[in-house]
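Task: complex structure prediction.
Instruction: return structure tokens for all chains below.
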Amino acid sequence: MKCGVKFCGGCNPRYQRGDAYRQIKDELDDIDFDYAQEDVPYDQLLVIGGCPACCASHEQYTAENEVIKMWDESHIESVKDELLKRNSNKGE
Amino acid sequence: MLMTGEQYIESLRKMNTRVYMFGEKIDNWVDHPIIRPSINCVAITYDLAQDPEYADLMTVKSNLTGETINRFGHLHQSTDDLKNKVKMQRLCGQKTAGCFQRCVGMDAFNAMFSTTYEIDQKYGTKYHDNFVNFLKMVQEKDLVVDGAMTDPKGDRGLAPSAQKDPDVFVHIKEYREDGIVVSGAKTHQTGSINSHWHIVMPTQAMREEDKDFAVAFALPTDAEGLYMVYGRQSCDTRKMEEGADIDLGNAKFGGQEALVVFDDVFIPNEYIFLKGEYDFAGMLVERFAGYHRQSYGGCKVGVGDVLIGAAALAAEYNGAQKASHIKDKLIEMTHLNETLYCCGIACSAEGQATAAGNYQIDLLLANVCKQNITRFPYEIVRLAEDIAGGLMVTMPSETDFKSDMKVGKNGETIGEICNKFFAGSPACTTEERQRIMRLIENMCLGASAVGYRTESMHGAGSPQAQRIMIQRQGNIEGKKALAKAIAGIK
Ligand SMILES: Cc1cc2nc3c(=O)[nH]c(=O)nc-3n(C[C@H](O)[C@H](O)[C@H](O)COP(=O)(O)OP(=O)(O)OC[C@H]3O[C@@H](n4cnc5c(N)ncnc54)[C@H](O)[C@@H]3O)c2cc1C
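Output:
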């Protein structure tokens, strides 16, 4: 599964967004993560916000699945689970 | 094309900018230890734009070219753009704890875009096209532009045309077929030296007799006849000390202001945006000041974030972090800082489109924002100094902390003595405590206090300038009508 990643701009993040991303990426090595680009089609889009506003723009990217958003450290595990699930669904 | 910080620094080396400091011409000003921190501060606005963790705020699609540009060169297209501007400034303040200088240009772009449009509508001039062409070039090359508004102003009680020396306001000295020759100066110019270009604007509303002073234009920073005299900052020569690091408080970043002199500078027609239409000088000033008053609801908040963090660390290093009054003071600092942010976001959220199509902030709320900025950073500084303790201003130099000179009866060195007596909680080393005290000193009364305190007071206009705007926009008549209706007064 090809997953485009988009960060919010980080004006006042309540946790280390980069560390959270690395944690997710490192554990899900079956998934092909990349920073989202406009002209690349993705299976999945992951938006990493720094606070509940999760204001990152993402409408400019194309992805088959519904976008997954996170804005808190406590979301890391559920995001991993959801990505795993979607990745295995794709394999079926 | 987005430049990297390094490319930006290299681009400055190619310029023939004339800089004077301490009575001397500074040829290699890019690497000068007093100037370099301010260049680093601007460079980070380039580096953050290249980083996927920050690009969503730092970059945006240009409405002029459709290309991705640095947001500092953008014309706001919506209230979201206005809010993102404030967020970007908070981010840059957090990363530098200083003045990153690039917002004066951005605020000038947005004020100039809408004002030139309205001048052309009234007078059939071509200033808007001139400006749009200029801005496209700025966006394409990812340039830094200084927004130069404040004149020396001489006798504050006299109009520009009534001054004994006309040079205390920038003015047109000669009208030519292909352009104008300007003379005068701009004071307090933030980021002037490390800008690629300047946009020059009048500093106040003008009357007919001040026609020659109602002038706006762009020029390269190394234009013939233009030069700068670098402004001193508190503790600036500490940067010249050999191996200076801890004593600087913030070794990498800083702000910069300069006196910019126009010694009969020729401006070709294509870079002129206002030439004698004195009735628009006030509009331009009001719009620029409005945007700039919004800006402070972002940048000063980011710097405040760092100061609050430094105060919290100082409390930990002093071993006082559990005291209830310390916790309460940190809460108060946060409350004040976030109130400023609320103002920055509020005046953005209530923004509206100008006739030219770009968005401008709500002027009443932007002025309220800046009025609070003239106060709250001072209170935040007071609380930081309270929490830090006197050490932030009485500690010996870093050279003493490293000194091997034996001074004690048992052969103790100065360094050992300093480390013994300035040790705090076991949670930190003495050097860590030293570092945080020096950072607080730097922000409260050292080089960065220029930006965090006095610029908060006078930058974008002294407090009274906002009060005049608040009076004008405050709708007292509407409020009287409300009171009459409730009180049953017909
Ligand atoms: C750190 C810093 C950075 C800055 N950066 C920039 C920049 O990048 N670009 C730029 O254009 N400007 C910049 N400024 C300038 C700023 O806008 C001015 O400082 C501000 O407009 C006040 O002008 P002044 O400093 O000349 O003070 P003054 O005008 O001398 O004001 C001093 C006091 O006198 C009062 N006063 C002045 N004139 C009158 C009058 N006619 N009637 C009644 N009261 C009066 C004022 O209200 C104030 O209380 C910067 C200023 C600072 C401190």
